[in-house]
Design the sequence.
Protein backbone atom coordinates (compact mmCIF):
# COMPACT_ATOMS: atom_id res chain seq x y z
CA UNK A 1 0.00 0.00 0.00
CA UNK A 2 2.92 2.35 0.49
CA UNK A 3 3.22 2.77 -3.29
CA UNK A 4 -0.31 4.22 -3.34
CA UNK A 5 -0.25 6.41 -0.22
CA UNK A 6 3.46 7.14 0.01
CA UNK A 7 6.25 6.24 2.38
CA UNK A 8 5.29 5.64 5.98
CA UNK A 9 1.74 4.45 5.31
CA UNK A 10 2.54 0.86 6.28
CA UNK A 11 4.02 2.08 9.57
CA UNK A 12 0.81 3.80 10.64
CA UNK A 13 -1.62 2.27 13.10
CA UNK A 14 -4.93 0.95 11.83
CA UNK A 15 -6.62 4.17 12.98
CA UNK A 16 -3.93 6.23 11.20
CA UNK A 17 -4.35 4.29 7.96
CA UNK A 18 -8.12 4.77 8.14
CA UNK A 19 -7.71 8.51 8.69
CA UNK A 20 -5.16 8.82 5.84
CA UNK A 21 -7.39 6.86 3.46
CA UNK A 22 -10.39 9.04 4.35
CA UNK A 23 -8.30 12.17 3.71
CA UNK A 24 -7.28 10.82 0.31
CA UNK A 25 -10.92 10.15 -0.57
CA UNK A 26 -11.84 13.66 0.53
CA UNK A 27 -9.07 15.07 -1.68
CA UNK A 28 -10.42 13.13 -4.69
CA UNK A 29 -13.90 14.55 -4.07
CA UNK A 30 -12.50 18.08 -3.71
CA UNK A 31 -10.44 17.68 -6.90
CA UNK A 32 -13.59 16.73 -8.81
CA UNK A 33 -15.43 19.68 -7.24
CA UNK A 34 -12.71 22.13 -8.31
CA UNK A 35 -12.65 20.71 -11.84
CA UNK A 36 -16.42 21.13 -12.09
CA UNK A 37 -16.16 24.71 -10.82
CA UNK A 38 -13.42 25.52 -13.35
CA UNK A 39 -15.64 24.25 -16.16
CA UNK A 40 -18.22 26.91 -15.33
CA UNK A 41 -15.75 29.75 -16.00
CA UNK A 42 -15.89 30.94 -19.62
CA UNK A 43 -12.73 30.61 -21.66
CA UNK A 44 -10.89 33.60 -22.96
CA UNK A 45 -8.58 36.18 -21.59
CA UNK A 46 -5.05 37.35 -22.15
CA UNK A 47 -3.47 33.98 -23.01
CA UNK A 48 -4.58 31.14 -25.25
CA UNK A 49 -5.57 27.90 -23.61
CA UNK A 50 -3.03 25.11 -24.10
CA UNK A 51 -2.43 21.50 -23.04
CA UNK A 52 0.25 22.73 -20.63
CA UNK A 53 -2.27 25.07 -19.04
CA UNK A 54 -4.73 22.18 -18.58
CA UNK A 55 -2.03 20.02 -16.98
CA UNK A 56 -0.93 22.82 -14.67
CA UNK A 57 -4.49 23.56 -13.55
CA UNK A 58 -5.28 19.89 -12.88
CA UNK A 59 -2.05 19.50 -10.87
CA UNK A 60 -2.80 22.71 -8.97
CA UNK A 61 -6.35 21.54 -8.23
CA UNK A 62 -5.04 18.18 -7.01
CA UNK A 63 -2.51 19.77 -4.68
CA UNK A 64 -5.00 22.31 -3.34
CA UNK A 65 -7.47 19.48 -2.70
CA UNK A 66 -4.83 17.41 -0.88
CA UNK A 67 -3.83 20.29 1.39
CA UNK A 68 -7.47 21.21 2.01
CA UNK A 69 -8.29 17.60 2.93
CA UNK A 70 -5.40 17.54 5.41
CA UNK A 71 -6.59 20.76 7.06
CA UNK A 72 -10.16 19.52 6.60
CA UNK A 73 -12.52 22.45 7.03
CA UNK A 74 -15.14 20.39 5.12
CA UNK A 75 -15.09 17.46 7.53
CA UNK A 76 -15.75 14.77 4.92
CA UNK A 77 -12.80 12.67 6.11
CA UNK A 78 -13.97 12.89 9.72
CA UNK A 79 -17.49 11.84 8.70
CA UNK A 80 -16.09 8.84 6.84
CA UNK A 81 -13.93 7.82 9.82
CA UNK A 82 -16.83 8.21 12.27
CA UNK A 83 -19.21 6.22 10.08
CA UNK A 84 -16.66 3.45 9.55
CA UNK A 85 -15.89 3.22 13.27
CA UNK A 86 -19.61 3.01 14.12
CA UNK A 87 -20.05 0.33 11.48
CA UNK A 88 -17.12 -1.69 12.82
CA UNK A 89 -18.33 -1.36 16.43
CA UNK A 90 -21.79 -2.54 15.40
CA UNK A 91 -20.25 -5.47 13.55
CA UNK A 92 -18.05 -6.36 16.51
CA UNK A 93 -21.00 -6.40 18.93
CA UNK A 94 -23.01 -8.49 16.47
CA UNK A 95 -20.08 -10.89 16.08
CA UNK A 96 -19.68 -11.17 19.86
CA UNK A 97 -23.38 -11.95 20.35
CA UNK A 98 -23.26 -14.52 17.56
CA UNK A 99 -20.21 -16.15 19.13
CA UNK A 100 -21.97 -16.36 22.50
CA UNK A 101 -25.07 -17.93 20.97
CA UNK A 102 -22.98 -20.43 18.99
CA UNK A 103 -21.12 -21.50 22.11
CA UNK A 104 -24.40 -22.67 23.63
CA UNK A 105 -25.55 -24.57 20.52
CA UNK A 106 -23.92 -27.23 18.38
CA UNK A 107 -22.33 -26.07 15.14
CA UNK A 108 -24.40 -26.45 11.96
CA UNK A 109 -23.40 -29.19 9.54
CA UNK A 110 -21.15 -28.20 6.63
CA UNK A 111 -22.99 -26.93 3.57
CA UNK A 112 -21.98 -29.93 1.48
CA UNK A 113 -23.36 -32.54 3.93
CA UNK A 114 -26.82 -33.40 5.20
CA UNK A 115 -27.96 -32.99 8.81
CA UNK A 116 -26.87 -36.58 9.59
CA UNK A 117 -23.31 -35.79 8.46
CA UNK A 118 -23.52 -37.87 5.28
CA UNK A 119 -22.38 -36.25 2.02
CA UNK A 120 -25.18 -34.87 -0.13
CA UNK A 121 -25.71 -36.08 -3.64
CA UNK A 122 -26.52 -33.32 -6.04
CA UNK A 123 -28.66 -34.10 -9.05
CA UNK A 124 -29.37 -31.74 -11.87
Sequence:
Amino acid sequence: MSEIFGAGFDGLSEQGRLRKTAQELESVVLTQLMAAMRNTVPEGGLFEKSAADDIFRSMLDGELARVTAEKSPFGLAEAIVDRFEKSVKGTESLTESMNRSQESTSPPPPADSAADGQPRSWRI
The mean pLDDT is 76.
